[in-house]
Amino acid sequence: MMMRSLAFLLVDQSALRPAGPQSAHIHWLWDVMLWVSVAVYAIVMIILLAGAWKRRKATDPTPLTDSKLEQYIVAGVAVSTLILFGLLAASVAVGKATSDLDPRNGITVKVTGYQWWWRVEYVHPDPQQYVTTANEIHVP
Known about the structure:
This protein is 54% helix and 11% strand. The protein is mainly alpha-helical and 140 residues long. The chain has a 3-stranded antiparallel β-sheet, with no helix packed on it. Helix 2 runs antiparallel to helix 3 (66-99). The longest helix is centred in the first third of the chain and has 37 residues, at 21-57.
C-alpha cells in the first residue's frame, strides 16, 4: 500500500512538460525567453551594483562626458533591440511550426455549456463513431 501511494512521485507531474509536438515547440520558446530574461536581468543588476559600488568608493569621481554617456546609451539600445528581434524571430519560428497542423488527423469536439454541466460531442462523419459524453473530455 505504501509503495502504491508513493508511485506518483516517480511520474513527472510538471504542468510545463510538453505532451505533443506543438507543445514541445512552445515549451522550447518558453525556455528561451525565460533564460534570456534571466541573463538580461542578471547583467543589468551586475552593472547597477558595480556602478553603485564604484560611486561609493570614489572620493574624486571623474565626471562622465556627454559623448561617453551617449555611447553607453546607444550601445544599450542596440543590444536591447538585437535581443528583442532575436526573441521575435524565435516566436515567429515557433508560430509557424505550431500552425502546420494537418486537419485530416484532427478530431472535432463540440462542447456545449449548460448551467451546471457540459455536453461534449465527438463529431465524426461515420455515425457509428459519433460519441456524446457529459462533463468529460477524452483526448486521444
